[in-house]
Amino acid sequence: MPKLDERLKAVAVQIRSRVHADIGSDHGHLLKALLTSGRIERGIAIEVNQRPFENSRSTLSGLAADVRLADGLEGLSPGEADSLSICGMGGELMTRILETHPGRVPADVVLQPHRRPDAVRRWALQSGFHLVEEQLVVGRQRYVVMRFRLDRSTAESANDPAYDAVDREAALLFGPLLIKRWETRFRDILVEEYQYLMRLDQRTDDSAQRLSALSKLLDRNGLP
């Protein structure tokens, strides 16, 4: 069984299904860990580039996994997988992949963007996917792992209970469930970013938006 880093461990514990597809699987280590631990019965690795495709094919050799050379969801048929993961890409790229073939996105999705998690959260709200778990992973870098579940009960896609009683702008930027849990490490990271943004002589529109949201959020909790 391959040794996963903390980021992929956090992804793996969110997955338990019959057939799981991993887009951008790189070396295929996540799928191998899921298969050998019994968390999934069959895996589908999808790679757009030849070298990662070969890496995944080597890692997953002899296991119940298909390795496909394709561009995102073009490599997956509707209803073929019960769950899906995309890790280590920017949030904008993830949303482009998911929006290209929405009918091929399974009901259970785990996403780990390395930037712009707010883009992923906006996609979910617009697409009827509810946020059921999110976790902050701190290592050499900071990552957020998010699990979404398609809500078939309502046509009102923006009605996600995860956002109840939380400022919507702050929740999209920093995570509604993380805000509700308000753990010490998360709070300290927000304070650190707030202090950094306050020291800037000039701010972009994005940084000004984050500072505004942080100011309201921290003030509401009696900080900084």
From TrEMBL:
The keyword Transferase applies. GO terms for biological process: methylation. Its EC number is 2.1.1.217. Keywords: Methyltransferase, Transferase. GO terms for molecular function: tRNA (adenine(22)-N1)-methyltransferase activity. It is an enzyme of class 2 (transferase). Gene3D superfamilies: Vaccinia Virus protein VP39 (3.40.50.150). This is tRNA (Adenine(22)-N(1))-methyltransferase.
